Amino acid sequence: MVRTIIYNASILTLDVADSFYYPGTVEIENDRIIKVYSGKPGDETLNDPSAVLLDGTDKLVMPGLVDLHFHTSVAKGFGDELPLKEYLEEVWYPAIRALDKERAFTAAMHSYCTAVKSGTTTVNDMYRFVGSLADAASKIGIRAVLSNEVALPEYKLDLLEDNEVSFRENNGRDLDRIRVWLGHEWMCTSDLELMAQVGQAKKRLGTGLHIHLSESEQEVQEVQAKFGMTPVEIAYESGCLGPDTVAAHCVHLTDDDIQLLAKTGTSVSYNPGSNAKLGNGIARLQDLQAAGVNVGMGIDAFECENSPDMFELMKFGSLIQRGLHKDASLGKPPQILRMATQNGCKALGIDAGAIEPGKKADLIVLDLTKNHMFTPLLKDPARRKTMLESHLVYGCNGSAVQHSIIDGNIVMKDFKVLAIDEEAIRKEMDTVFEGIAEDMKSLITRV
């Protein structure tokens, strides 16, 4: 039995009762949280030689962050000035066509390492060479839902058959910490027949679906002109929507689209940084939530956000809604924190997202003294909780994350990912992209 105890900490549980403990203790056995309570453990527990003790003095314990729309990345900082379609044609597709198993493994190792270091404990990663991604997730210890980038053959990405092989070979690895879903690139690289096949495969395999929908105005216009329906309507007619589907972006939705998402229980990944950087607009977050749609948050590819840091994303995601609607009451920290944690868990069917007994032990510990990001803090628990929520969303970044526990395992301790040589991965990633950048020159195929 693996036992970990974090004591004398501020504990932001994000549970249904909105409990907060200061000072408090979290006890973990194997992959589950077994106790959460005020005060310190007894001497018998503190002197248990089999337990790993983490002193939580000046620390905050909270659920790990769930990146609900993620792409393993290789080309951060390359082609930043391009809008979506040109970016896909000139950077993204050439880069991922230049991959092989070894390059994909290195890219995933680097992407997952940097995600963990900024507080992410789960990624919903649509990319290529899923076996390599699974190997990287297994090595680092991150929780991962993986899928291929499925498109028509002429786009030289992945086929539905590739994704089915990925599912058979990798779904359920590491005691179900690694799962495989289907992935669908978008309707601009698909047709009605392929979408129907994806819907049928989803049902046949009993797995989920990660799909891009209605990201840009140009996409929606092209799809409507070609097929006479919006991307959301096509997904609905194809049997691709449902509680086991994550629809990424959903920026340009009709009222009917929103109702279809709500009616089917489809979750949406709100990706405000990517949508803003690529000039695609701002999602109708308030309307989606009012309709009852479960909305989580995602970075997208690092290329589209330039950072894996979901703390920065939470701040931007809140502020952009306030600015758009001229309403300072929107995007409250407690709501945004839940979007970045438990809403993502709900979307992916993961029994985590709150610090409470029985939940999966996916949590992070932040250093409240790091660069004064959490100063000032009051000692009164009620006021301390409110200030911490504010600091987490508006005042800190992922560099404050000191420890990360995933599936009950300490994956990062004292700011270092334990399973890997971080510096070696950094150097290898530089070398890999040198080769990819050279190969990209001959791999540009207009979409």
From TrEMBL:
UniProt keyword terms in alphabetical order: Hydrolase
Every Amidohydrolase-related domain range: 60-411
MF terms in GO: hydrolase activity, acting on carbon-nitrogen (but not peptide) bonds
Top-level taxonomic group: Eukaryota
Gene3D superfamilies: Metal-dependent hydrolases, Urease, subunit C, domain 1
Pfam families per record: Amidohydro_1 (PF01979)
Hydrolase recorded as keyword: yes
Protein name according to UniProt: Amidohydrolase-related domain-containing protein
Species for this entry: Thyridium curvatum
